[in-house]
Write a structure and sequence with these properties.
Chain lengths: 327, 350, 342
């Protein structure tokens, strides 16, 4: 098949050429013209997911400015507005689009602020897992032998625990070690650490596999013949070439991390209710589910589902687009 | 070169080569052709351009004849072979021309009918013997499956035929080997199995795409010998696709030289090799190092074959041709008779 | 012909074994034995300055392992490798030796990092060895290297996938020349290329040898190519050199039965329609090589001694340049007139 193998992703990772505005424009034009962008434009699912995701991200990121209320500013809360149903139901109030919870907080605003925490935790956890997993995977794959054996056995052991168990463990340790009142302020970091640490073996395995494939290719041997040190080979030669599958994995993992965060928060070991994430909101709302105030839990849940679904669909598309066999 | 190595006399017997091949100077054969390809055009639509991999290719193969198709990578030789057996992967498609097997047109057959033609009437041998065989099934099972798909034989008869085939392609101890898996065979033995598979239903034509490229030189010679002997014994015609002029020289009766999706020269093998009429064929022959020639610097054709998305107008070879003149840049030459061969070159118009 | 006193590169009884045993647990549970692949088993040769030594043999004969031993990608199991008189097999990577010895690989599609620009690929050795400091010097050097191998200096801004196989091999050569080496190891440099492109690359390599006084170790399975470039040729079979002779001698009067077989298997364009002489048998499994001379199961002259005793590389009577490892040749059992060049 006479298909030109274009550099599918990030062709300019290591190019040390000066980035003039003109060069940036040219790169942008080339990016728009690339096979990846083309495949994106041709996939309605990817485009819709991206739009949904951008709306979610925008709403979360700019929540303090775009949210109709500040649900955490106690001064603006009015208990008289508590348990207002959403639009279209009897008793709805125009200023509360999706209704309010038992404290009179606007559900829509709470979702926007909650998504902020959820996304922050998800992204940070994935970045942490990626940093850990990619470097350990590179070392294992390139070093081989005993180092490889050690790292991968640790990964095996860790993979045999469910992620939530590990997160619970880290959370428990943090609670035991830290003073009681300190926990609330660092809860987010504990969550990131717990989810990040429980996810690194996936990255390590993926990276190790592709590193071992790439390592046997002649350009790595050529670099060794030139006299490049192992760290240089890993960083400059191997990393850009093993990153493709990692990016796919990371995309899908953001969704998983958000879900894990929600689960942990739902179980009560996540972020405190004073700074709720989507999971916390669902848990709070859960108490009212059977008393008729379903909107308090259903809307945060729907927001979570939409966000996770969009990320997953985008990840699926990315995987297919980067896989030359499926093209 | 003569050698004192015995035990291969059987294989060494000179093939009684089909006499009617030599000296023919017409494209139309006097013998009714087995395969006729007319003005074949294969396109691969991509997102902004349509790449034309094969463009106006015509040739024919008579029963029992070995037609070599030679060319460098990207010349369109494998695509031509794939078109004949109906194995062009989408989005690629046959965009023009006709492929006739005997009197029957086969390029527009529905997939189901084409599958029956494939294997039953046209066999295929590919480059990599490892990927042509399913690693999960024994060699015997694959052979028997192929036999019973195409021939109406009882399981026992099929098993017997499988053993015969293995013995015929020179696999020692076929009774034991038939129950082994492909990975238990060496590269050369695997290629023999692939040839046995291609022969299973006694097809009239075999498409062999680089059948010896993955093999060591000494094994190459064995496989070529085997192909030649089988074709002689069964009267099977072969379309032998390869980049190796040496393999063509010793195997083929006629040879078609392809460049950038077109046949630039076609004719009896000895004429094309010794008196190439097209400048590309001449350059190609001159660039092959030989142990018989002295070690002067090799003749080289400067530049590279154009990519499919940038085939020059006129004669596709003109940017690299040492004899280029004005007409070559403007007009595309068709195949025209030059002595016993046909060449697509304006040099031969007087 | 080489005349200088000290050879540039010397290998003395070099061997490299690979442990290809199944994992420990499988060995215990399935009672499998340890398996050692003797990829290279006692190879000695030298390359003089300005000389090209060709190494031929079929796949699995160990010729590529020899190349990787010399450049230091593998450590030898035993034996000595010397470069300009200094041992290089034991010490870690010595930058001076690394600079003086470079390698060209077989697959032009795998030997260049697909995510790097050509200019960065060619500049990598210059940067790694600090051969030029300022980016202007580096760019100038890269430009002249690219022009030296027949590319334009503007090509440096492109990525490898924008080039054809032959052009990529030129980029590989430019990268290898960047450190101004004295010795180039070429592992099947043209076997992935089309013939017309192969001719271009071979001619380029000869021109560079003339201009820069390079020495080559040229590894190939293609005898015609080796005949074209080499001054001396060694034929390898199952990890050992079976014959080492000047190119004219080896191609006109090969001694070892394996060399004869290889030569006979080369297709001859001048004799269309003539099948070449096929040789029965295949290369044995290198994990379980035959006892004695490894070639004896395929050799028409094998006798009891060949099955028992490994032949050593010895000078042939009457020619100091030719060494052969064959009992039959040594004992004169092989009729000399049997092989006549076509």
């Amino acid at each position: 098949m006479p298909v030109d193998a274009a550099p599918a992703i990030a062709p300019a990772v290591v190019a040390p050429t000066a980035a003039t505005p003109a060069a940036n424009m040219a790169r942008l034009a080339r990016g728009w013209d690339s096979d990846l962008a083309y495949s994106f434009r041709r996939s309605p699912v990817a485009v819709v997911s991206a739009i949904v995701l951008i709306i979610c991200l925008g709403a979360a990121l700019f929540a303090p400015w775009v949210a109709p209320h500040n649900p955490f500013d106690l001064a603006t809360l009015n208990l008289l507005d508590a348990l207002t149903p959403p639009h279209g139901l009897p008793g709805a109030k125009p200023e509360y689009l999706l209704g309010t919870d038992d404290q009179g907080r606007d559900v829509l605003s709470a979702i926007m602020f909650g998504a902020r925490v959820s996304l922050l935790v998800g992204l940070a956890a994935v970045v942490l897992a990626m940093l850990l997993g990619v470097s350990l995977g590179l070392i294992a794959g390139y070093g081989g032998g005993k180092i490889d054996g050690f790292i991968m056995r640790v990964a095996d052991v860790q993979l045999s625990f469910p992620a939530i168990l590990i997160a619970l463990l880290v959370d428990g340790v943090a609670r035991a070690v830290l003073p009681r009142d300190a926990h609330g302020s660092i809860a987010v970091f504990v969550l990131v650490l717990a989810i990040g640490v429980s996810n690194w073996p996936q990255y390590a395995r993926t990276v190790r596999g592709s590193t071992m494939v790439e390592k046997s290719k002649e350009y790595i041997q050529a670099a060794r013949v030139i006299g490049i040190r192992p760290l240089g080979i890993m960083w400059r030669h191997l990393l850009p070439n093993v990153l493709g599958p990692v990016l796919v994995l990371a995309t899908i993992n953001i969704a998983t991390a958000i879900l894990t965060e929600a689960t942990l928060s739902f179980l009560g070991v996540g972020v405190p209710p004073t700074e709720p994430s989507l999971g916390t909101l669902i848990r709070i709302g859960n108490d009212f589910l059977f008393s008729g105030e379903w909107w308090i839990t259903i809307f945060p849940g729907a927001a979570l589902v939409i966000m996770v679904l969009a990320i997953n669909l985008l990840g699926d598309w990315l995987r297919d687009a980067l896989n030359p066999k499926l093209r | 070169m003569t050698l004192p190595i015995p035990e291969v006399d059987r294989l060494q017997q000179r093939s009684d080569r089909a006499a009617p091949i030599a000296g023919r100077a017409t494209l139309a054969n006097t013998v009714a052709p087995l395969l006729t390809v007319e003005e074949l055009r294969v396109e691969f639509p991509s997102r902004d351009v349509t790449l034309v991999a094969v463009d106006g290719v015509s040739f024919s193969i008579t029963p029992g004849e070995v037609l070599g198709v030679v060319g460098e990578s990207g010349a369109g030789k494998s695509v031509t072979g794939a078109a004949v057996i109906g194995l062009i992967d989408p989005p690629g498609r046959i965009a023009g021309g006709r492929i006739m097997l005997g009197d029957r047109r086969i390029d527009n057959l529905p997939p189901e009918a084409m599958r029956r033609v494939r294997g039953r009437e046209i066999g295929a041998v590919f480059q990599d013997p490892l990927t042509s065989l399913n690693p999960l099934y024994t060699v015997g099972r694959q052979l028997i499956e192929t036999i019973t798909t195409h021939l109406d034989l009882s399981p026992r008869a099929a098993h017997k035929r499988a053993l015969e085939l293995l013995a015929e392609v020179g696999i020692p101890a076929p009774k034991r080997r038939i129950d082994q898996y492909p990975h238990q065979f060496s590269g050369g033995m695997r290629q023999r199995v692939v040839i046995a598979l291609a022969l299973a239903a006694s097809p009239k034509l075999i498409i062999a795409d680089e059948p010896t490229t993955a093999l060591d030189v000494s094994i190459q010679a064995q496989i070529i010998m085997l192909l030649k002997r089988l074709c002689r014994d069964h009267g099977t015609a072969v379309m032998l696709i390869t980049h190796d002029m040496g393999v063509i020289a010793e195997t083929a009766d006629r040879v078609a030289v392809m460049y950038a999706g077109r046949i630039v020269e076609i004719g009896p093998v000895s004429d094309v090799i010794h008196r190439p009429a097209h400048p590309y064929t001449r350059g190609l022959m001159g660039s092959i190092p030989s142990i018989a020639a002295d070690r002067e610097s090799l003749a080289q054709i400067d530049g590279t074959m154009p990519r499919l998305n940038a085939i020059p107008p006129g004669c596709a070879f003109h940017p690299r041709c040492p004899h280029v003149f004005d007409r070559c840049r403007r007009e595309r030459p068709e195949l025209m008779p030059v002595g016993p061969t046909f060449a697509a070159c304006w040099l031969h118009v007087h | 012909m080489p005349t200088s006193a000290q050879p540039l590169v010397e290998l003395e009884n070099v061997a490299r074994y690979f442990d290809v045993s199944p994992p420990w647990l499988n060995r215990i549970l399935e009672r499998q034995r340890r398996q050692v692949l003797k990829a290279v088993d006692g190879v000695s040769f030298s390359v003089a300055k300005g000389e090209t030594l060709g190494l031929v043999g079929e796949s699995g004969c160990g010729k590529s392992t020899v190349a990787r031993l010399i450049v230091g990608l593998y450590r030898p199991t035993r034996g000595e490798i010397r470069f300009a008189g200094r041992r290089i097999d034991a010490a870690g990577p010595d930058p001076a030796v690394r600079r003086a010895m470079q390698m060209i690989f077989q697959d032009p599609y795998a030997s260049l990092n697909p995510r790097w620009r050509v200019a960065d690929i060619v500049a990598e050795p210059i940067r790694a060895h600090g051969l030029a400091r300022s980016s202007r010097d580096i760019n100038a050097r890269v430009g002249s290297l690219l022009e030296q191998v027949g590319l334009a200096s503007a090509d440096g801004a492109k990525y490898p996938h924008q080039f054809s196989g032959g052009q990529r091999q030129r980029i590989s050569i430019a990268r290898a020349l960047a450190t101004q080496p004295a010795f180039l190891i070429c592992d099947e440099p043209t076997s992935a290329l089309d013939v017309s492109v192969q001719a271009q690359v071979l001619n380029l390599m000869r021109r560079l040898q003339r201009e820069l006084g390079l020495s080559y170790l040229f590894i190939s399975h293609n005898l015609a190519v080796v005949h074209h470039v080499a001054d001396r040729v060694g034929a390898m079979y199952l990890g050992r050199i079976v014959e080492l002779a000047p190119v004219n001698v080896l191609f006109t009067s090969p001694q070892h039965p394996y060399t004869r077989m290889l030569l006979a298997a080369v297709p001859d364009l001048t004799r269309t329609g003539m099948p070449r002489t096929a040789v029965a048998g295949e290369v044995p499994n290198p994990l379980d090589p035959p006892k004695g001379c490894a070639f004896h199961p395929r050799c028409p002259y094998a006798d009891e001694r060949c099955r028992r005793e490994v032949p050593r590389l010895k000078h042939v009577a009457g020619d100091a340049d030719v060494t052969v490892a064959c009992h039959a040749v040594e004992e004169g059992r092989l009729a000399q007139e049997a092989f006549t060049a076509a």
